[in-house]
Write a structure and sequence with these properties.
The protein is mostly beta strands. 5% of the residues lie in helices and 56% in strands. The termini are far apart.
Length: 161
């Protein structure tokens, strides 16, 4: 199962579904939703010596978020899949730096998503305690939506103390 193909990238790009925000019940939080478009560049990267020949793919992530989240992010993704069956999965971590509804700082998003014979399941969450500066204490989930024309958008349901 060879995974370094544009078709796999297209299958992975189609992974999108609904998610709900999380909250910390021990601390008062303000829940909000931020939405907007984003641009993403994925670039193939070599696997480590240990992972060579594993059938995995590794990509760098370079994003620019617009709207309520004005930020850039950089990260890495590992993926595997079978484009012929419409099934694939990926995991990724990306560090997002910029402003969220005017509050400056950084945070880390953790991705773990699959598509099983065309049926997507998406999980993109803020790594607990990864928020810095005015985003310290940030919690939340992001949903990525991809339009038929390939345009990317996000819906970020989040809470801040």
């Amino acid at each position: 199962m060879r995974t370094r193909s544009p078709l796999l990238a297209a299958v992975l790009a189609s992974i999108a579904c609904l998610a709900t925000a999380t909250s910390d019940k021990d601390h008062p939080m303000t829940s909000r939703t931020a939405t907007g478009p984003f641009d993403v560049k994925l670039a193939p990267q070599p696997l480590s010596g240990v992972a060579e020949g594993s059938g995995l793919s590794r990509m760098s992530i370079d994003k620019r978020f617009h709207g309520a989240l004005e930020a850039s992010s950089r990260g890495e993704m590992l993926s595997a899949g079978n484009p012929a069956s419409g099934s694939a999965g990926y995991v990724a971590l990306e560090t997002v730096r910029g402003t969220l509804d005017g509050r400056a700082g950084a945070f880390v998003l953790q991705h773990s998503s699959t598509i099983a014979r065309g049926v997507p399941t998406q999980s993109i969450t803020v790594v607990p305690d990864s928020g810095t500066e005015a985003l310290a204490g940030l919690a939340g989930r992001m949903v990525v939506e991809i339009a038929p024309d390939g345009a990317h958008a996000y819906r970020f349901e989040y809470s801040l103390p």
